[in-house]
Every structure is written in structure tokens, then in C-alpha cells.
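This section describes the prediction task in plain terms. A model, or a person checking by hand, is given the sequence of a single protein chain and must write out its three-dimensional structure as a string of C-alpha cells. No templates, partner chains or ligands are provided. The sample shown here is typical of the held-out split.
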Amino acid sequence: YSQVFGAKLSALAEENDKIVGITAAMPDGTGLSQFREQWPCRFYDVGIAEQHAMTLAAGLAAGGLRPVVAIYSTFLQRSFDQIIHDVCLPRLPVVIAVDRAGLVGEDGPTHHGVFDISYLRMIPNLKVMAPKDSRELSDMLELALRLEECVAIRYPRGSVHDEKLRRLGVADYQPVELGKAEVLAQGSDITIVAIGSMV
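The expected answer:
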């Protein structure tokens, strides 16, 4: 997921020179290293200072730029206040890439991103998205940058599962629509609801 995110953001930055990338000492882990190489003058690594990353993004957005902040889910918690007060209350168009959302295996319990859905959903003016595969992640990033709103896109650590979905017969692609669920299969005995990579 991180590589898909980094490649798509770099491609979108070719079309839009207002896109800037921000991280808090995580350029390689979040996939922003490719963006850093291609667009060094549009890349900011603030060090281990997630609060500052979010406030910087708010300032850049207020100045007309389109900041994308990539931070691991577990460390995004540190910037909760800045997300509310600096980004969402003034409705600034900041995209938050919430990397390593969910359980992260060998990274250990300090890196499990298990709280982001809970604390992000309650923030006014924030849209929260979770892609089921690589194509949705690309489309959600593109959509988020088209919207003039605060958007968070959460995705897990590890490999995308596009081929598994195709094997299960989920081949028809439906464009991402804000606030609309996607029906992948019809049946009559049970309803299964899933979000993000759990699909």
C-alpha cells in the first residue's frame, strides 16, 4: 500500500505543482521517499514532530498549496489536537495518509494502528476513507486532492490483495463515490459488511 501511495502521489504531483508531501521522520516507511527524490523542494520531513507536521500542513493549505501528510496511524494520535483545531475546524484541504492502519505484525504493539477510525470519525469536517485494494487507494488519493476538504485515507502495512479479490470474482470495478457503499456480491442468507483491506 505504501508503494502504491508514493507512486500515485508522485504522478499526481507532475500534474499539480501545488501538491506538497509532509512526513514526521517516516519518508521510507510511508512511501514518500519516491516523492522526496522527484520533488525535493516540495517535500518536508519535520522529524519526530507529528503535531508540527499537521500545523505545517494547515499553514501551507491556508496559503493555497495541497499538502499530503503521511504518518503511521499509531503516531498520528500525537497530532489529534492539531487535526481538529488547525485543519478541520477551518476546513483546510489537507490530505492525511494514515499508513500502517490496523495490526502491523512484527512492528510490535507500539505500532498497531487500531484507534484511528474511532478518533478520526468524530472530528467535524473530516472525511475518512479506507481502500480495499490498490486501485481504490489510487482513486481515493486522486479524489481527496480534488475535494476542497479535509480527508484522511487509512490503509494497512503490507501487500495489497488485488489478485485475491479477482479470484473471488470481484473483478468489476466501481468508481469511488463519497459516502456510498459498494455491493460486491448478492446473496440471501447473510450480510457481511467490511471496510478497507478487510474486504
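For orientation: The first strand starts at residue 19 and ends at 23.
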